[in-house]
Amino acid sequence: MIKESQILWQQGKVWVLDAKTSYDVQIDGITHSTTDSAYHHNPDGLSIALARAKYLVNRFIKKESMNLKDIVFESGNYFVLKAKHGYEIYKSGITHSTRCAIIGYEGQVGIDKAIREILKRKECEKYE
């Protein structure tokens, strides 16, 4: 059983645990936390664990941040996001969005292909 006093640092869904024999970097999930990495139980190990945890927080922030201005088309549960390689199609869910497709074309050609892909997916959903 983990005690609150064993949590040495936390930001968002990442935290550092004093596991008595190691310093563990934990990531919260829906039902439980998982250990990302573990380090020696000494000052160097704690320093490395904190650095790893802070790196993961920054990675999650960059990954999860999405600008609404990058959304170029929406239809129902689907939206098209401008990406550096073209466009990405996402389907919105209750707790998150899932990328469904990547369109490797730029400009209006890419948007048109993304719209056709969304229409095709919506048509298939009718039969599920």
Derived from helix and strand composition plus strand pairing, the structural class reads alpha+beta
Helix-strand sequence: EEEEHEEEEH
Q: What value does the average pLDDT take?
A: 89
N-end to C-end Cα span: 44 Å
Q: Going across the major beta sheet, what is the strand order?
A: 1-2-3-4
The share of residues in extended strands comes to: 35-45%
The count of strands amounts to 8
Fraction of residues in H or I helices: 25-40%
Biggest sheet, open or closed, and with what strands and sense? 4 strands, antiparallel
Global Rg? 20 Å
Number of domains: 2
Number of discrete helical segments: 2
- Runs in which pLDDT lies below 50 for 5 or more consecutive residues are none
**What is the general shape?**
elongated
Structure in a nutshell:
This protein has 128 residues and is α+β, with helices and mostly antiparallel strands.
Descriptive labels:
single chain; four-stranded antiparallel β-sheet; elongated
Could you characterize the architecture of this molecule?
By secondary structure, the protein is an alpha+beta fold. The chain folds into 2 domains: 4-64, no CATH class; 68-125, no CATH class. The protein is built from 2 helices and 8 strands. It has helices spanning 43-64, 107-125; strands spanning 7-11, 14-18, 22-28, 33-40, 71-75, 78-83, 86-92, 97-103. The chain has a 4-stranded antiparallel sheet, with helices on one face. It is elongated. The model has no long low-confidence stretch (mean pLDDT 89).
